[in-house]
Amino acid sequence: MKLSRVASFLIRRHHRALGPVSCNEPVRYGAFLTKNNFSVSAVQDSTALLYRKHGEPSQVVQLESLELPHVGPECVLVKMLAAPINPSDLNMLQGTYALLPELPAVGGNEGVGQVMEVGEQVKTLKLGDWVIPRDAGLGTWRTAAVLKAGDLVTLPKDIPVLSAATLGVNPCTAFRMLADFEELKPGDTVIQNAANSGVGQAVIQIAAAKGIQTINVIRDRPDVQHLSDRLTALGATHVITEEKLRQPETKKELLKSCPRPKLALNGVGGKSATELLRLLQNGGSMVTYGGMAKQPVTVPVSALIFKDVKIRGFWVTQWKRENKHDEDALRNMLDELCVLIRAGKLSAPACAEVRLQDFGKALENAMKPYVSTKQVFVM
User: Fold this and answer.
1) Pick from 198, 195, 91, 141: nearest CA to 362
2) How many Cα neighbours within 13 Å face the side chain of 84?
3) pTM of the prediction?
């Protein structure tokens, strides 16, 4: 097909700005997917939140229009439906996360989209499928994208959109930490800080569905009773502030109603993590998955010598990479989580639905302390 002068100019400009990447090549983290061969009819627009440098999220992100490439034989065109803002997304924008995409990049690592066009060699996806990213780095804060089919996994369409959009990171993190570090049985106890976070809320619900008790530690705040009531409604056994947990009499009262925890889940660090360790039973495990306090984890020598506690870490991205050749591992976990969602035993966190155009306010709200509501871009 002979291209018009305007189309040829647009393609040359697109290649100069972003560089050609074949759809048959591995997609770089956050990279724009382009092809060497375009047809005029294949060039479509996508509105996206891009960043070209690291810094304060609300200052480095820009709303821009992108040209979409032709859908290659191994690719699909995905219309994004919803995509949340997670702490790891903010860390990527700030340049402090363990995984940083090449710039410029589209923000967002999680979300759900619908397949609108399928490449001729794609066998695993079909038109209309709901899909989520298999791994971090695809850039979900946009209205549409052409992506490799192998980078996506399907979800059933009979669950709420917000549940689907927030399923791939926090519930998967909660599920794996409850399953992989200690053999938990009904009646056992898990203690966690950051209980009002996305991971914390998922831990409460998954544990409750399995008959596991939870001690849930939160920071003191003006609306602490309202938050406590909300977590209790999700299935929390106990909700307690960090300040009260430091009191010896509080620990005694807790242990009258439930056994010492086998497992502690730490998303905060600092003194909060140390208090979790003090309650662990002999030989128990503390798993760190976050560090919101930006303080190191201090382990008392007595906990190591006399209680032989195990100090572990968990990163769901690493788990997905280690299991990328095991199709059943991710599939079975997602299926089990979807069963809980359908049964009303696992709900999405409280969400504020925002438009891409309102990204500045959404990013600022996502960074505010003591806010349990997750900001979700709805396209």
Assistant:
1) 141
2) 26
3) 0.88
Residue matched to tokens 């200690």: 182
pLDDT of residue 2: 41
Give the tokens for residue 325: 């050749």
pLDDT greater than 50 at residue 134: yes
pLDDT at 221: 87
**Calpha distance 156→379 (Å, rounded):** 19
Q: Which residue matches tokens 């619908």? A: 114
Length of the chain, please? Answer: 379
Q: What is the mean pLDDT of residues 342-357?
A: 96
Distance CA 206, CA 51 (A): 35
Nearest to 338 by CA among 181, 91, 168, 187: 168
Whether residue 80 contacts residue 92, with contact meaning beta carbons closer than 8 Å, is answered with no
pLDDT exceeds cutoff 70 at 257: yes
Per-residue pLDDT averaged across 343-364, rounded?
A: 96
97 among known catalytic residues: yes
Residues 278-289 pLDDT 10s: 999 999 999 999
Report the distance separating Cα 109 and Cα 90, nearest Å. 10
Residue 99 burial (CB count, 10 A):
16
User: Positive or negative CA dihedral for 100, 103, 105, 107?
Assistant: positive
pLDDT at site 84: 98
The H-or-E segment that residue 65 falls in is strand 61-68
In angstroms, the Cα distances linking 27 to 246, 255, 289 are 48, 50, 26
